[in-house]
Amino acid sequence: MTPTRSGQNIVLGVSGGIAAYKACELLRLFTESGHEVRVVPTREALKFVGAPTWAALSGNPVAAEVWDDVHEVPHVRIGKRADLVVVAPATADLLAKAAHGLAGDLLTNTLLTATCPVVFAPAMHTEMWQHPATRANVATLRSRGAVVIDPAVGRLTGADTGPGRLPDPAEIFQVCLRVLRGRPRDLAGQKIVVSAGGTREAIDPVRYIGNRSSGLQGYALARTAVARGAEVTLVAANVALPDPAGVTVVRVESATELREAVLDASEGADVVVMAAAVADFRPETRHEAKIKKTDGEPDPIYLTKNPDILAELGARRQAAFGSASGFAESGGSADTGAAGGPVVESGSASGRGSRSGASPKVIVGFAAETHDVLANGQAKLARKGCDLLVVNQVGEGRAFGTPDNAATVLVAGGDPVEVPLGPKEDVADAVWDLVAARLS
Predict the structure, then answer these.
(1) I want to staple 213 with a disulfide (CB 3.0 to 4.6 A). Which of 12, 146, 198, 298 is the partner?
(2) For residue 17, what is the DSSP state?
(3) Is 387 among the annotated ligand-binding positions?
(4) Is 309 flagged in the annotation as binding?
(5) Chain-centre distance of CA 327, in angstroms?
């Protein structure tokens, strides 16, 4: 298995689940990106997709047994030469064999001899995924450095629905690309909440006040965190993107809904990253019927302030930990209202009061600015009580809706970090580098 000039050696393991056919799409994504792929199916997988299909799509021979081409010692050679091994789908049986070091076929032998990163994309029925034995096997594999992507929630075999569905192959591919970049698994065991997208504040059943955020940066943060080992909850506001593999997605629309979801998810979380563009204001009154056009001037729309979620997170942490919190030690402060006191709501539009769960260790905010970027960012960092503030200049085709981004990461108690223009994954990795340093 010789890599192309631009690609790397990928071993695609396929175990015997009904989702084996989806691995054909994952294989295509790898080969079209210039990677050399060797497919190693189990004998059960070959009952779903035959060896000729794998050979034709990969351009490499296909074998399931250690006895095939034994003179080439494939059970050792394939794993040792790989830059990445990804198993998709990974059944409960395959996960159990991998966790216990069994080597009954070519795939399990390859997993034992591989010294490169290994990614498992499980797919099975909900009861099997949630069984204590499977959970223990997954924990064992993760403790050894493997990336085990949580399955998606959706339609399974037959009429069943629940967690256990193979994530979209394109999203598995994105996780694999990030693992291939060689980033450390320094977020392993960390529970992370990321918000993404832009909120919409209803005027009537048809119209709303919104913004241009696409959610691309927040999704890049979520995908990159998964590749670095984190358990990620993504609160997505009006985002038209596929769910990232291995991420729990909570969909919301308005700022009050986003507040509710973020505060729920942040209980017990280690890190919260507020990448969503949250509307500062909402209409004071929501019309129950569409506002009709009439002669003369339209009636004015009166606005009221939305809750400041980032400031609330910072103030809650200050109240819980005082000077022991990271941002307080480095000189930050909670956001203040008109009277100078911290903005900590005792309730919200939804009636939800204060939470009792542990506050996050690290809070990251985002600031989209059109002018006086650094000055506005520094002022916001001081007000919000967060540890890091990612500041980008927006407008004229910058940041919103584009695959690239440039940013300055302001650090409470430290020097700013410049991230040059590049893929939004680069900004995500820069943020996680700083977060991991604070966690350690």
Answers:
(1) 198
(2) S
(3) no
(4) yes
(5) 24
Domain end, chosen from 155, 180, 205, is at 180
Query: Is residue 408, in this structure, part of any structural domain at all?
Result: yes
* pLDDT digits 0-9 by tens, 272-305: 999 999 999 999 999 999 998 887 788 899 999 9
Same domain, 231 and 365: yes
State residue 348's pLDDT score. Answer: 38
In the chain, the number of structural domains is 2
313 and 231 part of one domain? yes
Assess whether pLDDT exceeds 50 at residue 6. Answer: yes
Question: Is residue 185 situated within a structural domain?
Answer: no
Between residues 162 and 168, which one has the greater pLDDT?
168
Token output for 320 = 């819980």
Burial of 405 (0-12, 13-18, 19+ CB in 10 A): buried
Read off the tokens for 408. Answer: 């300055």
293 annotated to a ligand binding site: no
List 87's β-bridge partners, or say none.
13, 120
User: What is the C-alpha separation between 217 and 403, in angstroms, rounded?
Assistant: 8
Q: List the CATH number of the domain containing 27.
A: 3.40.50.1950
Residues contacting 440, CB < 8 A, separation 6+: 186
- Would you say residue 239 lies in a domain? yes
- Find out whether 366 is annotated in a ligand binding site: yes
Q: Which of 180, 207, 236 is the last residue of a domain?
A: 180
What's the CA gap between 159 and 179, in Å, rounded?
34
Tokens of 272: 């919260």
Q: Within 13 Å and on the Cβ side, how many CA atoms surround 92?
A: 15
**Please, how many CA atoms are within 13 Å of residue 283, restricted to the half-sphere of its CB?**
17
Catalytically active residues are 211
Look up the domain containing 92 and give its range.
9-180
> What single-letter amino acid sits at 131?
H
22 is in an annotated binding site: no
